[in-house]
Amino acid sequence: MSLEAPEKHVTYGTAGFRDKAKYLPIVLYRVGLLAALRSRFLGGKTVGVMITASHNPPADNGAKLVDPLGEMLDQSWEAHATELANSQSTAEQNKLLDALYSKFGVKHDSDAKVIYARDTRESGPILVDALASALKSQNAHATNAGVLTTPQLHYLVRAINTLHMPGHESYGVPTEDGYYKKLATSYKKISTLAPNMKPVSVTVDCANGVGALKLQQLAPLLEGLVEFTIANGDVDHPEALNENCGADFVKTNQRLPANVQPVPDKLYASFDGDADRVVCYYTSNNGEFHLLDGDKIATLAASLFCEQVSNSGTKVDIGVVQTAYANGASTKYIEYELKIPVVFTPTGVKHLHHAAAKFGIGVYFEANGHGTVLFDKSTVDSLKTIDIGSPAQKQSIDILLALSDLINQTVGDAISDLLMVLVILAIRNWTPAQWDSCYSELANRLLKCNVRDRTMFTTTDAERRLVTPKELQPKLDQLMKQYPQSRTFVRASGTEDVVRVYSEAASPEAAKEIGDVVLELLKEYA
Ligand code: 16G
Ligand code: ZN
């Protein structure tokens, strides 16, 4: 390593380390040091490192650690990652590392196993080298899994560890092929169970990223059932990654990505750069664009689970987890139409995941398309052991069990989530417009605003209310009283040096006006 310290301070945040790739080789080296320690601390279980910057521009990159069951790194270790990465010299780095070994009572020569992968970014190989050299220096057993989607690496980590883990059922064959086969087998199984399921087709904008490569590998296994067309699948031009395309572009701009000429009423989907987020959309005959975002995916899934659980004769508590950004109409639909509880958590997948794990079946999605469905072990056990009365009951039980295999339960997975959407649409024989018509969204607007110190903005109630600056929340409350069905909140971004302003109301004009007023109120803090 030529440098002894990163050129700027880096922080292990909700999405791991993420920055311009040029700052990251030393950071990846230290991620390697920590990954080996983490594995040793966990008794030699395999931990993962994913090198990606998701939907960020091509010049960025990043790294995330994956814990043994495919979860994100335990939150209590984030500070260790940050501290180690920012060591100002090799001597300081070694001293810190030794201190961590002592603190955790870990022996340097115990077993350490780390598996790592990267997305398609140009800087990936250099960062892989930095990571690999750290793992070598630590005598860790290292496996280079090549180019993968983020959720594929999470799958591998969990599959490797559950191969021989007492108390845990094997998650699947621990290979990339095993991943495709698991998804395809469960999709096919559902197609044999659900009556009259028709083949479906979808065009997928892969953001010119790794999702394109992986969807191409999956597609032949689902021939005859799903027809995939790939748009923005150019991984040979790294500068095209996420450029005018991908889930983040489509959700943020509420419009079609580049290179998609839509046929009315056909289903389209967009992945992000590492394929852990998906949003769907379609256009109507008059050319109008309709987004089917994470909220719509959550409601589609929750309604099917309600129905199948009720047919299965089992008692399972189903719940949905959302963030403040969920459209109020989706929350109302879930609570009043589906009659299932909604829990709110702060933004960031780890919070949602944790809350969803408390339900028998927990559906969680951020509006931006990141999410999945978690099946508690007791739910799966009871589905497997219940006395079966009728063929219809057996059918629902088998569909639910197959869905639990189709859905990647380690983390949100664009490929697996898309298959879930497709299979539900096929079971229901719904067009995208029928799916969309379950509820009408309230008009909404998302703005960002520069302030002098965003840490002044602290929140409560799952980020829906400001605690400080304390004079601001009463003003927002007053504003909401003036517009029917309105809601607005302000929170500091965890990924950018800005505060975000969300507003929603019965009409687009009202949502816009509210947003404008809030921006005006924020001028005081610029
Ligand atoms: C991170 C989060 C994402 C969240 C976003 C919010 C993970 C893996 N990613 O990208 O879930 O929506 O941050 O960004 O947790 P913000 O704090 O800038 O609004
Ligand atoms: Zn992503």
UniProtKB/TrEMBL annotation:
Mg(2+) binds at residues 54, 272, 274, 276. It is an enzyme of class 5 (isomerase). Binds 1 Mg(2+) ion per subunit. Catalyzes the conversion of GlcNAc-6-P into GlcNAc-1-P during the synthesis of uridine diphosphate/UDP-GlcNAc, which is a biosynthetic precursor of chitin and also supplies the amino sugars for N-linked oligosaccharides of glycoproteins. Its cofactor is Mg(2+). Keywords: Carbohydrate metabolism, Cell wall biogenesis/degradation, Isomerase, Magnesium, Metal-binding, Phosphoprotein. Substrate binds at residues 366-368, 491-495, 500. It catalyses: N-acetyl-alpha-D-glucosamine 1-phosphate = N-acetyl-D-glucosamine 6-phosphate. It comes from Wickerhamiella sorbophila. One of its GO terms (molecular function) is magnesium ion binding. This is Phosphoacetylglucosamine mutase. One of its GO terms (biological process) is carbohydrate metabolic process. The active site is at 54 (phosphoserine intermediate).
